[in-house]
Specification:
With about 425 residues, the chain is an all-alpha fold. It contains 18 helices and no strands.
Length: about 425
Amino acid sequence: MSFRQLTRRAAIYSLALMFGAFPISVALANSLMFLSVVLGLLSFTGADVREFVARSWSNPVVRPALALVALIVVASFWSPASWAEIAGYYKKYAKFLALPVFIYLLARREDRVHCWRAFGLAMLFTLISTWLNVWLKLPWSRTMNQGFGVDHTVFKDHISQGIMMAFFVCLCAHWASKSASRLQALLCWSVATLGAISILFLSQGRTGYLSLLFSALVFALVALGGRLKALLGTVTVTAMLLVMVYALSPQFQQRTDLALKEARTSSLKSVTSVGARVEVWRFMASKSTRTTVFGEGTASYPVLAQSYFKDPEFCSVVCPHPHNQFLLFYFELGMAGLALMFWFMLSIVRQAFEHRATHRALMLAFVVIMVISNMTHSSLWLSTERHFFIMVTALLMASASRAVPRPPAPAPTPA
């Protein structure tokens, strides 16, 4: 095996291991991601560079990703933040630059399968641990709450586990529809059911509830072909299940009622999850940006938020980020940043319609989760969620790159 082949395979194996790591450990995932990028670049020859550029540029999601990074850099020059604070933002959004490398490395279907399996095993381990956590104190679990009616988040926080588990439920449904035997399909549906129950009954994340509800609804509608009868039946069944879950799940009921109460009673005097988000909206409405086109500049939100939220306890919650990625991009990058984020998501939607129904359903369910998560959290700013959305985007979009034919070898000169 040549050095090029060795480094290329090592880069792909590192990438597959990274898909198994980021739901559990950000530090390990970052190390594997860096190793994969370095090995991938070392494997490039002159012809590979040409093919890499052509493949990357042909992929619909790469252009908005690179344009977003370019805008983040340009917007640094009118930001009130220090260059040290701006550098922290560069580090957060730099993974968009690695997206073309990941897409290029995942060109082969066999390599994408390895990554899907690694992610699936990591989520299956998380799911099993979540259920075991009801009865046992697991040393690797973040929570030690035994019994039902309490949060059983195992890794990270309840928001990131909820959105990843919601996608895993749809992924299991996708695998079930492609299973070669009834037994495999039954196993996949069983895991999907346990995953859905873990979100609704063993977690306190409202983002997970919404992600599961709407992603499953979209997946079912698209997988069934979007026919009118299927549409009406899916909506009816979803509504009935929602009512039943609200009646049976204390977690779901308490978190829903609490969200409504927090929204009604929000103020700067008390810190609540929904109330803090309401106050951020009020801050955005009261703060007139210098230009709605390009915003206040990269990393400007924490600086300007500190001058508005005077209470230290309240500021500790909402000053680092506004718990809404759309608002964060609009505030710092203006309408241009918001447009690029929509372009990024719409490129995945458009590509979804190039695939068969179940694969299309999985891609659209992923976009739904991305929209919901970024409406309730700054998911591209936060580490675990940023890993999830960028890496799964690479995995879903890798098949969209068109191969670049290599020039034919010159015919041998006759003796």
